Amino acid sequence: MSSLIRLALGLTMVVAALLLLGLVIYVAARRSGAAEGRGQRFVPLFKQRKPRHLGKSRVPAPVPGPTRGVYGSQSRGSADYRRSEAPPMQPGYSPPHTRLLDDPPPGPEGPPPGHQRRTSPPAPVPPEAAPSSPAPATTAPPAAVSPVEFAADAHEVRAPRFVAGSKASRMPWLLPTESASPPGVAADQGVLGDLEVRAASVVGSGHRCGDPVKPRQDAYRVARDRAGDHLVLAVADGMSDSLRSELGASVAVGTAVALLRRYLDDNRPLSGLRADDLFRDVAGALVQAAKDRGLDPHDVRTTLAVAVLPTRCRPDRPVEGWVAQIADTHLWRREPGSWKCLTGAEKDSFDGSVLNSFLPHVPQAARGTLFTLAWGDTVAVLSDGVSDAFSYVPGATSWFADRWRDPPPLASFLLDVDYEAKQMHDDRTAVVVWAGGSETSRGAPRR
């Protein structure tokens, strides 16, 4: 019994010693904190909380890896995006407000007071750098008013819009039901000798947005002879009220270019070309193409214009080209601020049914002529989808003359051809040739 009493007393003394030791440690810690001026309350480790900036944050998490690209933005892993690397707070310093994900968006007059997108404090301005008095305000001269409207956003790709534009031009493109339809857009560019060419054809909004959808009824070809001495152009505009006008336009330009290439490869002069003979052969090919498909010649009616241009052009020696056309597809020459038709009178109506001559019915109505091509000239074979703008769209003549003063990039040229204007919904095709290239590359003044 005495041994049990002695064991209990021993355990009691051990527990008392441990309690006394813990009290001594606690008092020492409190005194040490007070001596250092911290004044912090002791909290057991299992009750301590994480600092707020290390827990769930409303700031987006950094994206791994650099994000520097075309806009020159810095890495999201840099100090500007990490709170843990923010500059130390100085007396009197107030950290800038960072817009968080659940903050209200800026209003129409700007962001709310105190909402700044900067994540680092602005650099202080030295007193000597501040101006003593505000600089006098200057008024910039008013910008010239252009008849053409481009996209306001630099990243938006849009065709030029004249005046109010066309609602149909902004409607979605639909697909034609025919599986063998030509593409809605075609474009080419090239250099041959002293000539530089751009070509583009776009289905009009009146054909691509309505029901039933019609395929592109314009067609063009750009080719050369075997020796590279001549550039051969052809543009056709299928008549809208023909069942397969796109077939007629394609056959017409393909046949005409093939016949002209064969003629030129025999080293025969341009003065020996006869428009009625050429267009009669094209009409025969159209009739045969319609017959092979069980169609009537009336189903493949089309206009046609062809041109042959010598590729060697010198500043002191103009050359002669040859052009032939039927109906309302013409050859135009650029003049200062305007365009001049070299192949007959312009039509006076949008209605295609007023045409009295077309292929394959009246090939004998085709007319051909020689024309002079001088260094610095710009000539264009245009369907009425483009040339009608010269007569019916205010400001279009001078705008296209200035726009095509030099050869533009192909994508820009394509958008020019696909311009937007009220009541201009037909297919449009342009094949433009610059003699002598651009001013920059050739060094000669352009007319």
UniProtKB/TrEMBL annotation:
InterPro entries found in the cross-reference section: PPM-type-like_dom_sf (IPR036457), PPM-type_phosphatase-like_dom (IPR001932)
Biased composition (Pro residues): 103-114
Leader sequence residues: none
UniProt feature coiled coil, ranges: none
Matching SUPFAM superfamilies: PP2C-like (SSF81606)
Record's compositionally biased regions (Low complexity): 130-142
Ranges annotated as biased composition (Basic residues): 47-56
All copies of domain PPM-type phosphatase, residue ranges: 214-405
Region (Disordered): 46-142
TM helices/strands, residue ranges: none
Domain of life: Bacteria
Name by which UniProt lists this protein: Protein phosphatase 2C domain-containing protein
